[in-house]
Amino acid sequence: MDKLAGEQLFSEGVPLGKDKGRLFIATGKPFPTVMEESFSDKTPDHRILSIALFIHEKFKERTVILISKDINLRMKAKSLGLKTEDYENDKVKNIEILYKGVETFDDFDPEVIDLLYKTGAIPRAKFPMNPADTPANQYFILRNNNQSVLIWCDHFTDTIRRVEKHTAFGIEPRNAEQTFSLNALLNPDIKLVSLSGKAGTGKTLLALAAALQQNKMYKQILLARPIVPLSNRDIGFLPGDVKEKIGPYMLPLFDNLSVIKNRFGAQSKEINVIEDMQKRDELLITPLAYIRGRSLSDAFFIVDEAQNLTPHEVKTIITRAGEGTKIIFTGDVHQIDSPYLDMQSNGLAYLTDKMKGQDIFAHVNLIKGERSYLAELASNLL
Q: Residue 362 in 3-state DSSP?
């Protein structure tokens, strides 16, 4: 804006180009009576609203629109007769990828299914599907009567591969989506993974198990999540040092670590590996607040609750990645706690939309909850 204005003043309007109008900056105006009667507190939001009302009254012959990502401010403006719009430019147009499960093809050629079981892979050129329908790192299920096979589009070898079920640090996949997720998480060629799905589908647990399974490949395993309380309601100031302050927000990550620990005996080598890594800070659970400015090399970085991140924050995190680093984003677009984000503008949806089809990116949407029958019932009905 400074470059646009040059020596001109915004109070007089800065021309934006031929037939594009002029740009003004309106500063604080007195609260009109209707504002004082409706909203007594002179908060920054209400000051913005009073300016919009002033412009609306001053230019009655023009259409005045208040554009804001704050849905509460938009509702207040509408109650005062002001037209409002959301900021649309950062929204993902098609978020179907975050809703649908893994695509299944029924009545598929049984000879192809048999060949996949015999050889494990088929060159893409000989696979009976259009290459445009089999983008890099896409997962599918092929079925014919009682036969079925899980497949993966391997961009690096230009083949369609059969996906086998693997266990990761004591965690065994319970359905096709979890099997596909572990395939992407355990593949060193795939450097960026996004896992979406409702609560209880195992996103974070699978990511942590895969990280521990590959602990010798990475110098450090990092687990992080944005510090956003439930429904954006802060619990106030917390006593103690930094670790004690962030502890309550990091409990879900510790819970997943406990699930994995409970798979093994107290004196098992797996438990010793986890405890040794924690002592040496090779397994760290940390808030995202300290990520800016860092460079993460040879790290397995898990970002939980990514639906509460903005697209800009997701970009900031990914651009921290150095050589040998793999980043995993997990989240549920139906559980957004930020008042400025929605299902189309959050960082997880933005990342998945922009990165799909890239050779080092994979996305899986998990559908079936595996936490418990109670959790699955609540997720579906409440």
A: strand
Beta-strand pair 139-144/147-154:
antiparallel
Give residue-wise pLDDT tens across range 223-238.
Answer: 888 765 444 444 455 5
Question: Measured between alpha carbons, how far is 226 from 205 in angstroms, rounded to an integer?
Answer: 17
From the list 78, 25, 27, 70, the residue with the least C-alpha distance to 45 is: 70
Burial class (CB in 10 A: 0-12, 13-18, 19+), 352: buried
Specify the pTM: 0.81
Beta-carbon neighbour count of residue 206 at 10 Å? 29
Report DSSP letters for 79-111, one per residue: HTT-EEE---TT--S--GGGT---EEE-S--HH
Q: Is 323 exposed, middle or buried (0-12, 13-18, 19+ CB in 10 A)?
A: exposed
What is the residue-averaged pLDDT of the chain? 86
Residue 225: exposure state from Cβ atoms within 10 A (0-12, 13-18, ≥19)? buried
pLDDT, tens digit, 9 for 90 and up, residues 110-161: 999 999 999 999 998 888 888 778 888 999 999 998 889 999 999 889 999 9
Q: What angle do CA 340, 315, 139 make, to 5 degrees?
A: 100
**Residue 278 is inside which H or E element, if any?**
helix 269-279
User: What is the reported pLDDT for 27?
Assistant: 87
Rounded to 10 degrees, what is the CA torsion of 209, 213, 219, 224? -10
What is the rounded distance in angstroms from the CA atom of residue 350 to the CA atom of residue 188? 23
Residues of the chain with pLDDT > 70, as a percent, come to 92
